[in-house]
Every structure is written in structure tokens, then in C-alpha cells.
């Protein structure tokens, strides 16, 4: 189990369908928030595994890699589809894996003292990406509409789908910021808010929380919805919250793995 104290949908096979998690900006923001909250010990170990590069450098790597033959096995790892007539617990498991199980797999590799450096590098790159995906509501969307890819809406008069809206259109319309500006503006949680975010300690918990948000998104965005300024105003706070949750939880998880003196009991440290 992954906790604060113990070290212990999405991409689809149809290449013609938009299937990324958060857009590049969302993944970069999540990774940068995490980087800003790594302990010095963790940051050194992360940078070493990434050959001196920032977590942001690899934040979007898996979206491209999953479309290559070498990493095609990871296509279903970006999401967990749950249909409207299913609960989080009753939804059938995909035979090729899902985001919850994939996160556990990467953590196991990073904690394994016998794992090769190459395998640890790969696990870290995958984990950085998946902590963004698991906080994107459409990555816990319906199997029947391919995580919102077949849920057709209009965005300022343009034909699109709900998944695409939540990937990039909504975040980019909310704030035309760089990922560093996103971090600067939303990474301001109080100690109490931070501990509340970190009280949800497992991939199941993160996914279930996102699934509940996704249900609200579906209910408030019927097919054919004409999305405009009011929708952006209503849902921007959720986008901000999910970026922040993903970043703080990624930092907490990496600190728990790489820093032996990190307890997770106190507010996440900042650089």
C-alpha cells in the first residue's frame, strides 16, 4: 500500500481518437509542482535517475511512447474506464492493466533494491506521467464513450468531444499561463489544505476521487452541450485543484520512496 509514512479513459488503441491525459501544459504543471516540493535528498536521486533532467522534461513522455511498438503494452495504463451503470469497485478490470495497477507496479520497481537502473529510470518516467493522468476526470470516464472521446460537444461553436475539452481546451482557456506560472499561482495550499490532500493515500483513493468528479462532469455536460465562458468559470477551480493534488501527491510519493528520513507527517517542504 502507498501511504505518506510507509514506502510500500486515456490512451486508446485507436490512433485516430484523441486520447492524451491532461494536455502538455497540465502534465508539465503537475510535474513542476512536484519538483518544487521534493526534499533535497529526493531531488538529487530523481535528477540522477533522469540523467540531470527535470521531472518536467519527462512529464509527457509516456503519451508518445505508448504509441510505439516498444511501449505499446502501456496503452491501457493511462486510464481506468467505469461505465455509468458501474461503481468504482464493480467495474471490470482491463486484462491489459489500468492506471491504478500501473502506479503500484512502478512504485514496486522504484523500491526494489535489485531492480536495474534502466528499469528504475523507466518506472520513474512512467510514474511522473500517471500521477497527472489519474487526476484528469475523463481518465476515469466511461468505457462506452471511450473516456469522453465519443461524447460530442461544441466548444465555442467548434465540434469536439468531452475528453479533448478536459485535456487541453478548458485548462488553456482558464489561464494562458506557462507551467511555471501555473505553479506560482495555484501552488499556495495552506498546511491544513496540504494535509487534507495527502490524507488520500492510495492510487485507489486518488482514482475514486477523480471518478466522482468525472460523474459530475458528465451530468453537467450532456452530449451536444454548447460550452462557452460560463462553463470555463464553473470548472476552472476543479482543474486547478486537480493539478495541485497531482503535484503534491507525486512529491509526497517520491519523497516517501527516495528520502529515508521523510515522514510525510509535516507540510511538504519547498525548495
Could you walk me through the main structural features you see in this protein, from its secondary elements to its overall organization?
- The structure is a single chain.
- The chain is mainly α.
- It has a single domain (24-258), classed as P1 Nuclease, CATH 1.10.575.10.
- It has ten helices and three strands; from the N terminus they run αααααββααααβα.
- Strands 2-1-3 form a three-stranded mixed sheet.
- Helix 1 packs across helix 7 and helix 1 (24-35) packs across helix 10 (229-258).
- It is globular.
- The two termini are 28 Å apart.
- This is S1/P1 Nuclease.
Brief descriptors of the model:
disordered C terminus; 10 helices; mainly alpha; S1/P1 Nuclease; disordered N terminus; 271 residues; P1 Nuclease; globular
Please give the structural blueprint.
Elements: H1 24-35, H2 40-49, H3 61-65, H4 99-111, H5 117-133, E1 152-155, E2 158-161, H6 162-174, H7 179-186, H8 191-198, H9 203-220, E3 226-227, H10 229-258
Parallel strand pairs: 1-3
Antiparallel strand pairs: 1-2
Protein name: S1/P1 Nuclease
Largest sheet: 3 strands, mixed
CATH level-1 class: Mainly Alpha
The amount of beta strand, in percent, is under 5%
Number of strands: 3
Strand order of the largest sheet: 2-1-3
Q: What is the arithmetic mean of pLDDT?
A: 91
Shape call: globular
Please identify, by name, the CATH architecture. Answer: Orthogonal Bundle
- Whole-number tally of structural domains: 1
What is the terminal-to-terminal distance? 28 Å
- Provide the CATH superfamily: P1 Nuclease
Question: What low-confidence regions span 5 or more consecutive residues with pLDDT below 50?
Answer: 3-18, 266-271
Number of helices: 10
